[in-house]
Prior knowledge:
CATH topology of the largest domain: Nucleotidyltransferase, domain 5
Mean pLDDT: 87
Low-confidence stretches: none
Strand content: 5-15%
Helix content: 40-55%
Number of domains: 3
CATH superfamily of the largest domain: Ribonuclease H-like superfamily/Ribonuclease H
Distance between the termini: 45 Å
CATH architecture of the largest domain: 2-Layer Sandwich
Number of strands: 7
Shape: elongated
Radius of gyration: 31 Å
Number of helices: 12
Largest sheet: 5 strands, mixed
Amino acid sequence: xxxxxxxxxxxxxxxxxxxxxxxxxxxxxAAKMFMVSPRTASKWANRYRAEGKAGMADxxxxxxxxxxxxxxxxxxxxxxxxxxxxxxxxxxxGELAMPASTVHAVLVRCRINRLSRIDRVxxxxxxxxxxxxxxxxxxxxxxxxxxxxxxxxxRYVGHQQGKRNRIATGWRTGQRRNYQPQMGTSYLHxxxxxxxxxxxxxxxxxxxxxxxxxxxxxxxAWFAERGVTVERVLSDNGACYRSFAWRDACAxxxxxxxxxxxxxxxxxxKIERFHRTLADGWAYARFxxxxxxxxxxxxxxxxxxxxxxxxxxxxxxxxxxxxxxxPGHHS
Length: 331
């Protein structure tokens, strides 16, 4: 197909060639009529004589031979150094005694010019996936945050004042062990839809199987209210997800349970990335005077994430925009 700025389309080339070949126009006269050079007119006329109407079609501009092309053996060595040792173009060029620009061109051609496209563990190119409709797969996991003492934590008030706040809160609540204040831990159970990235989260006091099962039931009901039927669930190999209670709950809900490969959190990468967004956008985003204040801010942030925050992985859309027929999802 001709490019948008092409002067001659296949049909116009045919008209030009027929004027020269069939009606005996000169190349200069035909070229002037179609506002091209005589050399271009001669080219299409010669191709029409040799191939007829079929010769007017577009052809690849790729050369028949490339004598200066990088040999395949060298390309394999460049790719191997990039995958196995994560070297940049300058370092690879130094080891192979060749220009860095050539190495960079090879990396771009092989689509491994950015380290973000390479798996950190294996060095292989990343294989990204996305299920084709909401509810086809949900990711579940648990992330932990230390509770904030009254008066604020050390991240905003400094280590000395943060220690005093911890001691005062420990005396007030009686949460002490060996004369040391214990702030405790918040267990945040998170669920995220693979296709839309719509998220659901609850703060719990533990990560036991009964708690995880209860969160799953509430999450499935929450998605059902928004027209999403959960078909599969993907989790890591945590104890709560290997329990009989979790297995029975998935069977009762009609959900297929899948687990990631051991020591392979990248498989559940969507929810791991959500945890980072959650920490930056909610948990440590601003000063909280107490743990109660931070927990009260979670529903507000979750609404912002689902309804208003643009997600780059889904084309700068909001997660709820990928759910259809949801009342009030633009509010």
